[in-house]
Amino acid sequence: MAQSLLEKAYDPEAFRQLGKGLIDTLANHLQSVQQGRGNVLDYREPADELTFWTNFPDTADFGAWTTAVLRHTTHVHHPRCMGHQVAPPLPLASLAALLGELLNNGMAIYEMGMAPTAMERQLTDWLCRRAGFGAEARGFLTSGGTLANLTALLAARRARGRTDVWNEGYSGKQAILVGEAAHYCVDRAARIMGLGDAGVLKVPVGPDNSMLAGELPRIYEKALADGLEPIALVGSAPSTATGSYDPLDELADFCEPLNLWLHVDGAHGGPAILSDKYGGLMRGIHRADSLVIDGHKMMGLPVLTTALLFRDGGVSYTTFSQQADYLLTESREEDWYNLAKRTFECTKLTSVFCWHAVINQYGESIFPAYLDRQYDLAREFAGMLRERPGWELALTPQSNIVCFRRTPTGAEREACNALNERIRRRLLEDGKFYIVQTRLDGLTYLRTSLMNPFTTRAHLSELLELLESYGAG
Ligand SMILES: Cc1ncc(COP(=O)(O)O)c(C=O)c1O
Q: Which fold has domain 104-362?
């Protein structure tokens, strides 16, 4: 009898065949791009891309569809891909993600994700220990650093705010303090919370782009004089544009006597807590109240794998005290295994499979091995730029993010900006490398995030030669 459409779509044999074909295609893709073959991306304008997919035939087989997707996407496993802070995922972690996507255990409550719930407790307990938090620390995984930062600030407000905003609504005048160089999602979180312009107090940064902790008392006192109620200080570990770490110990020195919540956005470089070599960048982290770490940045995991950790795990249970009784039982024991009590999401990803599979197969040391290599490479790249005429480094990199610009002799500021914008655009269209650009103090810089463990000094020399070959054009 002919299969119905649904029978066909759920057919395990068809899945087996399609899956084998997909894994073969992806393995070939990895083999090719990891060796640096082909372009990082073949750039097309958004309107052209839309036309392509609008006209894509419905009858295309899955293999043709996969091949088209590969041709029309950015290859993060390519050693010349050095633009955004997205890791080339460890292939095993991507397989673990596939497992999670097929099982689709929603994790809101324990029995809809028994294994991932237990794994998540084990993983976050481990991360808390490595951050230097005590036995009462707890964490969970959530969907991205943006959501994790918002969740942390909501927890901070619930724990330390003078008013019960959750039940009574927001009546104004709360504020957070945050470094000028922090990721925009912190500002966005504050605005979502209703704090508005007046509630986001920007702390100046120094020449290395990290927060000037000495400015904190002045800003705090002014906030009080203006009738504001500061509820948290947010540190970056590191900031996005230049990868600069805020001085966490000094931030904690400021917060502790005031009982001010210290949140650390370690989305990018939080995994330095696992590194003997670079752990010093996170000095003082054990004194933070909350910490965000993205697995999909400096831990080689697929999107989205984010950990949110609380030094006092108890506060994470009060962030969202809304009742949804069919999901959440009131229990006298710690209800760590019903995650929807503490997460923004109800249904959530089983992203813990990615971390767990990697630790299980390769051990924890794979994480610092990756971070150390990439941070070392950035220092090497900075050295190359210093030695090469016609290039200027924004600052000595603290992480794997390097900002630099072409500065031909005698070129004026605006001409230099225009030149750097032009060469970055030309590089994008060329497709051989992928880097991005950023503005610092009105100057346009080229920016690389050295995320790829196959990027070498030779690739970086090739990049500079190519950019130089663009000349003034
Ligand atoms: C420092 C920092 N915080 C937060 C984010 C946002 O994280 P996500 O992209 O996982 O939402 C980023 C993204 O680049 C970041 O660099």
A: Aspartate Aminotransferase; domain 2 (3.40.640)
Q: Of all residues in the chain, what percent carry a pLDDT higher than 90? A: 91
Strand-pair partners of 391:
406
Q: Kindly tell me if the per-residue pLDDT of 327 is higher than 90.
A: no
Which of ligand 1's atoms lies nearest the C-alpha of 84? 14
How many Å apart are CA 145 and CA 293, to the nearest integer? 7
* Position 408 confidence tier, pLDDT thresholds 50, 70, 90: confident
| 240 Cα nearest atom in ligand 1 | 16
472 pLDDT band (50/70/90 cuts)? Answer: low
Domain boundaries defined on the chain: 13-78, 104-362, 366-469
Ligand 1 pocket: which of 188, 236, 240, 349 to mutate (most atoms <8 Å of CB)?
240
> Is a pLDDT exceeding 60 seen at residue 388?
yes
Helix 457-469 / helix 413-430 crossing angle, nearest 10 deg: 120
Specify the pLDDT at position 323. 52
* Beta strands, E only, 311-366: none
Instruction: List alpha helices for 339-456, DSSP H.
Output: 352-362, 366-387, 413-430
- The contacts of residue 250 (CB under 8 Å, 6+ apart) are 213, 284
Q: Which amino acid is at 34?
A: Q
Average pLDDT over residues 269-296: 98
CATH number of 366-469: 3.90.1150.170
329 contact partners, CB below 8 Å, separation of at least 6? 335, 338
Is 248 in contact with 284 (CB distance < 8 Å)?
yes
Which atom of ligand 1 lies closest to the CA of 294?
Answer: 10
d(CA 238, CA 264): 9
Ligand 1 centre from 85 Cα, in Å? 8
> In a mutational test of the pocket of ligand 1, which residue from 86, 142, 146, 290 has the highest number of ligand atoms less than 8 Å from its CB?
146
Amino acid at 68: A
Average pLDDT, integer, range 192-220? 97
Q: What's the 337 CA to ligand 1 centre distance in angstroms? A: 27
